[in-house]
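ok so I'm stuck.
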Amino acid sequence: MLVCSTVGVKSLARSLVAAINQGRFAAVDQLVARRPAFQWYSVNGAPGRRVGAAADNRRTLITYLRARHRQKEHLYIRRLRFQGAEGGRIGNFNFVATRAALDYGPRTAPGKGAADCTLSRPKVIVWSLGG
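replied:
not stuck anymore, here's the structure
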């Protein structure tokens, strides 16, 4: 897969969302980089807010996603745009998603992310969803 391309970045981001929505946490764990490549996974909107030190903590990511899955949270990507690759190494993207769960109705929010293309298997290193 050419992850630092439009097709590759879109495929990786959609694979992550599908794994989260389906509760396939082992797959999520494989799609998101570990430290030191991992930078953050943030959600800037309640409920399920994850910002600051919590967003930077890769060790708590799966626990966080399991808690949101218990609330039947689903993400729906409405628009996803490749923003380009930094030196062929980091593929940046932005998106618009709708979040819905038992503890709140559907909300549309902007987001951004990045994928590290230098790892043995490309992985998401940044995921940031607005409120």
